[in-house]
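User: I need a structural model of Threonylcarbamoyladenosine tRNA methylthiotransferase from Perkinsus olseni for a docking pre-check later this week. Nothing fancy, just the predicted structure tokens so I can convert them on my end. Input:
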Amino acid sequence: MLRGSLGSYSKEDILARVRMALAEGVQQIWLTSEDLGAYGLDIGTNIAELLREIVVELEKYPRSMMRLGMTNPPYILQHAEEVAKILSHPQVFEFIHIPIQSGSNDVLRHMIREYTVEDFDRLETLDLIKRHQFPVINISQFYARPGTAAARIRPRLPGKVIKERSTEVTNLFMSYSLTDKLYDIGDLVDVWFDEVDEKRGQTVGHTKRYTKVIVPEVRTDLMGEKMRGRVEDNSSKWHVVVSLVE
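Assistant: Understood. Predicted structure tokens for Threonylcarbamoyladenosine tRNA methylthiotransferase:
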């Protein structure tokens, strides 16, 4: 892997910034990094400790929420149970971005990834998706980045085969939907709003499960607000449509 040296901000610096943001009225705290799971390895702490202390600050502002960003599997797996508990906290979105380069152990070994498919129920890539039915998947075709172990893998698959396999993964992902399983028409859901899409004439937010929610009108007054919505349409793979219960 081509990455620079790990450099973690101190917990004190991060917590100070969180406190400042919350005091200024910020409603959502997003933690971003190339690898959240590796946080603290260089300064004698870890991501679970940091998250627990941030949650303490969030609890002082009951309408605030936290969202986690990207983490690679090796380090976050060491704290999986603790992080899962934190994700279940009412002020933490149930969202985390985890890149999985392959569902095949052979491929992972060749790429020198520090985890195996056993960490993901021993499934091959397609079986992994079938089993877990992830609500969102970012599908990227293999690219042999110069200087990496993956770039030395031989023989390489023809571009046509790579494209066909990428299409197969995409088709599988598009074959199922979770919104109608998670939300029934008429369900009441809490929504945290964070975007206005004037082009489409809608206001966008997310549930605690981080399901995208749409109100089919522009409401700039909803930005940063938590509102209760009634599910009116759950037919889209990508979002549910709600009416506000004000």
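Before docking, keep this in mind: Strands lie at 28-31, 65-68, 188-197, 202-206, 212-215, 226-233, 240-244.
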